[in-house]
Every structure is written in structure tokens, then in C-alpha cells.
Amino acid sequence: xxxxxxxxxxxxxxxxxxxxxxxxxxxxxxxxxxxxxxxxxxxxxxxxxxxxxxxxxxxxxxxxxxxxxxxxxxxxxxxxxxxxxxxxxxxxxxxxxxxxxxxxxxxxxxxxxxxxxxxxxxxxxxxxxxxxxxxxxxxxxxxxxxxxxxxxxxxxxxxxxxxxxxxxxxxxxxxxxxxxxxxxxxxxxxxxxxxxxxxxxxxxxxxxxxxxxxxxxxxxxxxxxxxxxxxxxxxxxxxxxxxxxxxxxxxxxxxxxxxxxxxxxxxxxxxxxxxxxxxxxxxxxxxxxxxxxxxxxxxxxxxxxxxxxxxxxxxxxxxxxxxxxxxxxxxxxxxxxxxxxxxxxxxxxxxxxxxxxxxxxxxxxxxxxxxxxxxxxxxxxxxxxxxxxxxxxxxxxxxxxxxxxxxxxxxxxxxxxxxxxxxxxxxxxxxxxxxxxxxxxxxxxxxxxxxxxxxxxxxxxxxxxxxxxxxxxxxxxxxxxxxxxxxxxxxxxxxxxxxxxxxxxxxxxxxxxxxxxxxxxxxxxxxxxxxxxxxxxxxxxxxxxxxxxxxxxxxxxxxxxxxxxxxxxxxxxxxxxxxxxxxxxxxxxxxxxxxxxxxxxxxxxx
Length: 606
Ligand code: M6R
What we know:
Blueprint: E1 3-8, H1 14-24, E2 31-38, E3 41-48, H2 51-62, E4 68-74, E5 89-90, E6 94-102, H3 105-114, H4 125-135, H5 140-150, E7 153-161, E8 168-173, E9 178-181, E10 186-189, E11 201-204, E12 210-213, E13 218-221, E14 233-234, H6 250-256, H7 258-266, E15 270-271, E16 274-275, H8 284-289, E17 292-297, H9 299-316, E18 319-324, H10 325-328, E19 339-345, H11 351-362, E20 366-371, H12 377-381, E21 384-387, H13 400-419, H14 425-446, H15 449-459, E22 464-469, H16 472-488, E23 491-496, E24 514-517, H17 524-535, E25 541-546, E26 558-562, H18 570-588
Parallel strand pairs: 17-18, 17-19, 19-20, 20-21, 22-23, 22-24, 24-25, 25-26
Antiparallel strand pairs: 1-4, 1-10, 2-3, 2-4, 5-6, 6-7, 7-8, 8-12, 9-10, 9-11, 11-14, 12-13, 15-16
Bound molecules: 5-amino-5-deoxy-1-O-phosphono-D-mannitol (M6R).
């Protein structure tokens, strides 16, 4: 949460900083600000609200001019969104931008107040800025090192010292930070998207390494000032991938990118018609030996794990325990060295998932990360990593990241089932072939958008909705429900269809529409019985099912028919109409689809 950028070079930097922040706005949009050296002094412009508000402020005369500066887009943790609480923070000597949480900020603040410091904001960040000022003795490295010793929590910091008007200092612990390496210009950023326009080369900053960045070069050193040789990385994301490309919203673009994202994710992992996950370090032999699997993740990524559980247990007959990362880390889970713990995360920076990963490692399990962002914390800290190749996902609501996570879950399930002897090589090939066909089938599903738009028009005035399903369809309905509530602000719950009559059905009236997912042939009749029960109580029902299923008008008000595939693969197709329904409902309600209220994409706090 929160995005930070920095630029030093030979170009005017305010616009470069704002452009970079636009690409990080998905990380938080409560306020934005920049600080730039102007005639040797640090000049700050900041504003509550989105970047457009900052831009307007700058247009009316507050734009700082200079070639070295830092910027920030905020997701509020300490202190409400306001001008005063906006970053950058500091004083005339030291000014900073910060992503993370300072846990002992109260203690530091009390200490500094006793030293005579005053505070303007309610933020934890201001205490770090003032602490740096307190320690500052003309030597930035020593000053930053002293700060590191004193501060607990997570941080990625961009720092300007007034005495060094051509230099950005940067340091991080837990929160992500990269250093972009350009020609006669260099950058800092929370991820690679702000730098892609300018350079593809970057360094990953490690915990408590201190970077000194100016126009001509970048030096990275330890807290003792010893220089560290850094490995240069090359970003492989396409700049166009981080643009809307003619779509009204990133979410719509990302929904439509799913066939390509899946193809790019699975093709390098198939050899001789069979899944091949060895490049991640996960060998066939290892798969044979795991006794249990855990999938630990948050939100949409956890929902991908739930689908994975059904598929793996059905095919491989290996127990899979799916956990919400924020619960897993505090429930003292029983894990052994024979277990494989899979951490699923688009960003690779989700605080609870990182904590779960650390716990699993402490307990001796093998950890496997399924992650989209290269070089992210989860990818680097797990024993094994499988990258999904969705490209940058900008919309806060996850769509293509979910689909590629599912596709890896399927490959894993097929290979595990084969390794355990639960399916034959032929069957494994047959399943893999069907997965390869998914992108093409998805293109047929993507054209159903008008149907989904129509259903959205029927849902838009509802106050509350139910998503129901059984088995795999129940796991899927959880994602459909999350998508809808997240971006349209309509309350929605997902329920195991058979469980409704044990309480929740009392909520059902004609004002409570129901979306039923019915893709599993063995459960179809049961699900339809449950649909009839809600229909009898007045609910308007939309059903998502395969094309060969006959459902009468007396049962469903609206139908979405999907191309037929083997049941086990149907979730890959059924996710799309649910994404569309959520999207069009939010659009019809006039919601900010890509940046829903109170949310941020990368949840780097507990
Ligand atoms: O980056 P991660 O995949 O770890 O993020 C986990 C959740 O915050 C995320 O999946 C969230 O639920 C989605 N953005 C919702 O659409």
C-alpha cells in the first residue's frame, strides 16, 4: 500500500514523478504529493484526494521545478486522508516519502517531543522524518543507519537531505523498492511500472541496504557504508500492458487479456504434452512425497486456492488445506516437513501472506510461491517459485491474476495426480490438452458481455445479493461475490447452495437476487433444487451453466450458457461472466471501477 517514486537526472522532474505515481495509484489513492529540489531548497506540493487533485493544485502555481525529487501516493493507515497527512513529510533539512508502517512511532514521537520537536500530522511517517533530522550530522549514511536501529516495522523510504540537492537516498525493510537505471538519470519506485517508459534496467534493493542515487550513478551500501555489488535485472513487462489501450477501464482490459495471460502462463510449463514444473525446482520426485498441501493466500488469491483444493483432492487424492493468510499466521497451524505450503499472491507483497510464508518455513515445510510480480518478497523468500505471466494487473479488482493462478493450480493438480499414480499418463495428457484449449474457449465466453451487461442492469438497484453453488461452483461463487461487492458496493454473500436452508434462506425475498453457478453435472440436480427453493420465495435467479444444460424459464430468470468442457475445467470459463457482471453493475452504478473506495491493490499492512 502506498506507492513511492523518485527521479534524478537532467529533466524537469515534477511531471515525471506524477506520471510515475499514476502507474502506482492502484497502491493507494487517498492523497498524493511530491518534493523537489528547487534552487537548493526542498519544495513540496501535496494534496488530499487523487493525483488529479494534486495536478490541479500544481497547475495553479504550486508546481516545484527541479531535476531531483520524490513522490508518493497514499493509502491512509495513520491519520485520515487530508492535506496535512499527505506525504512527503519532514522539514527544510530532511524530507521523506514512505510506504509501510512504523510500529513504534508513538515511542519515537514521545522521544522527539521531549527533544523539542513539533509535529503537524498524525502519521507514523513524520516521526521517521523528524528522527532522521534529529540524527543528522552531515552524513546521510550514518544518519539512516541510526534511524534503522531505532525504528521497528516496515518501510520503503525515499529521502532528500537539503545538503545533497542532487541526490536521492533510499532504504527499505519489508516494503518493496526498486532502483531504475537510466541513461544519465535514475529512479526509485515501488515496482517497475513507473520506470518502464524510461528504462528496463533495475536493481532490487534488499532489506536495510542503503542506496545513494544521483544522475550519474547508483551506489548501494550496507549500514556500515560498505559498497555492495548489485545484480542488474531487466523488466520484461511491456509498457503497453500498463496502459488502458482504448478500454474504458483497466478492469475491462484485464478481463479481455485472460486468454493471452493463460496461454503465456501455461505454455512454458508443458513439455511432451505433460505439465512440467521443474524450472520452479518442483520435481516429479518431490511431488510423489508430499503428504499434504496447504494453500495460503488472501482475497481472490485464496479463492484460486479453493478451486485448487477441489481439483487436487479430486484428481490426486491428496489432502489440501486452504487458509486465509491472516488466520493461518495466528492459529498455530500443524505443519510438518512432509507438507508443501503454497503461497498464492499477485503482488508478492501481501503482508499476511509473507508472514504465513515465514511461519511455514520456520516449521520446516517446503514453500512454493505462485506469484505474478517478479522479484517480489514472496517470490524471493519462498523455496520454490512459479511465476504467473499475467503482466501488470492495474485494476484493484483482480481478474486475469485469478485466471492465471487457476491455470497453475490445474497444472499442479495434473502433475501431482500423475506423480501419485492417481491418474495415468494418458489421462494427464488429456487433461493438459484441455487446459491448452482454455484460451480459445475463453474467447467464446468473452463475447457474452452483452448478456452479462443485461443481467447487471437487473442487479444494479439491489441492496443485497446471494451467489450460490456446490463443490467447485461454491468456490467459484465466492470469487463472483467478492468481485461484485468490491467494486459495486452492493452487499453480497456466497453460500453453499445446500446450506441455505439452514438459516440464510430467511433473507430471501423478491428483493434479493440470486446468482447460481451450476457447472458440475454430478451436482446439477441438487443445485437446481436449491435454485427452485429460492425462486419459490420470490428471488430473481441468474444461472451460469454449460450450454448443454436445459433449464426452463420457470427455474431461471436469466441464463448464461458457457461452452461445454469437462466439469473439472469449467471454473476457468465460469469466472468470466461473474467478472463481467460485477464490472457492468459497477459501471451502471457510476462507481470508480479501477479504484474502489477504501481499497488498495497491494496490501502491505496486516
Ligand atoms: O497481491 P495478492 O494476490 O496477495 O493480493 C491478495 C488480495 O488482496 C487480492 O487478491 C484482493 O482480494 C483482490 N484485489 C480483490 O479483487
